[in-house]
Design brief:
The complex is a heterodimer of chains A (97) and B (185). With 97 residues, chain A is an alpha/beta fold. In chain A, 44% of the residues lie in helices and 28% in strands. In chain A, strands 1-2-3-4 form a four-stranded parallel beta sheet, with helices on both faces. Chain B is built from eight helices and no strands. The longest helix of chain B has 35 residues. Classes of the chains: A alpha/beta (97), B mainly alpha (185).
């Protein structure tokens, strides 16, 4: 399982920065845990990048604590039904393995 | 003498003089065969209209009947057949006109779907660039509102700020956006 941690504001052009390591990971088909617990804001481009990663990867589990900006936005947009979201990295790892 | 006992020719002569009873007698006598003629051309639904039209013609044109060119029944059948053909042509023409009108209304004049798509995409790109160019707090509100469809209350929840702040940022952002897009246009 590959764990990728992204922190800070995930918006505008920064979505590409998220996609770059995911693209590299996609090549070896390993499950990916994307730890977004340190993300303070995510916009529509960030969510699009997440969905893109979800489509490319064999298995993607997002770690985002309840009430965090990412979890709140995924929940409000209904994307928590599309993506696999777990409250922390440990739970995500257990799910991805 | 009751019109019913008169010959067809005598009835037509009376009709030419304005005798409604004679017209009625002609109608009763020949209606079955004339209805069949009308229905064979105009169809059962159109036959009655054709007959009414034909007997109207008989009323006004009875004076034109010429026994030398055939009997009354033949003359009546000719009148009915011609009117039935006219009725079919009228219906066909009306149907074509409606079809054409339908197609015309579906096809907007001078429509250019590819051009519209390109133009729409260009407009969307210009709008997106303008939104991204807004101050960050205004950008976030408008991005969440227009690209993710969130309500202002939800945006307040995401951003962790009061609803009034979201409203204020949305207002400022939209005002600024309007000004910038007006300049582009």
């Amino acid at each position: 399982v590959t764990v990728i941690r992204v922190a800070g504001e995930l918006e505008l052009g920064q979505a590409d920065a998220l996609l770059a390591p995911l693209r590299a990971t996609a090549a070896d088909d390993a499950p990916v845990v994307l730890d977004l617990s340190g993300v303070t804001f995510i916009d529509s481009t960030g969510l699009r990048a997440l969905l893109d990663a979800h489509a490319r990867l064999e298995r993607l589990v997002v770690a985002a604590p309840p009430g965090s900006p990412v979890e709140t936005l995924l929940s409000l947009t209904g994307l928590d039904d599309v993506l696999t979201v777990r409250p922390d990295v440990d739970a995500a790892l257990a799910d991805a393995a | 003498m009751s019109p019913d006992h008169l010959t067809d020719e005598a009835l037509v002569t009376r009709v030419a003089r304005g005798d409604r009873g004679a017209l009625e007698a002609l109608h009763v006598r020949h209606r079955p065969v004339l209805h069949r003629v009308a229905a064979s051309v105009a169809g059962p639904d159109g036959a009655e209209d054709v007959l009414q039209d034909a007997f109207l013609a008989v009323w006004f044109r009875a004076g034109q009947f010429d026994p030398a060119r055939g009997n009354v029944r033949g003359w009546l059948k000719g009148l009915v057949r011609n009117r039935a053909i006219d009725a079919v042509r009228r219906n066909e023409s009306e149907r074509r006109r409606r079809d054409l009108a339908g197609r015309e209304s579906e096809r907007e004049p001078d429509r250019d779907p590819v051009g519209e798509l390109v133009e729409g995409t260009q407009r969307a790109a210009v709008l997106r660039a303008a939104i991204e160019g807004l101050p960050r707090d205004q950008y976030r509100v408008l991005d969440l509102a227009y690209y993710l469809g969130l309500s202002q209350a939800s945006i307040a929840q995401v951003l962790g700020c009061p609803l009034g702040t979201v409203k204020g940022r949305a207002r400022l952002g939209l005002t600024r956006l309007r000004t910038e897009l007006d300049e582009v246009a």
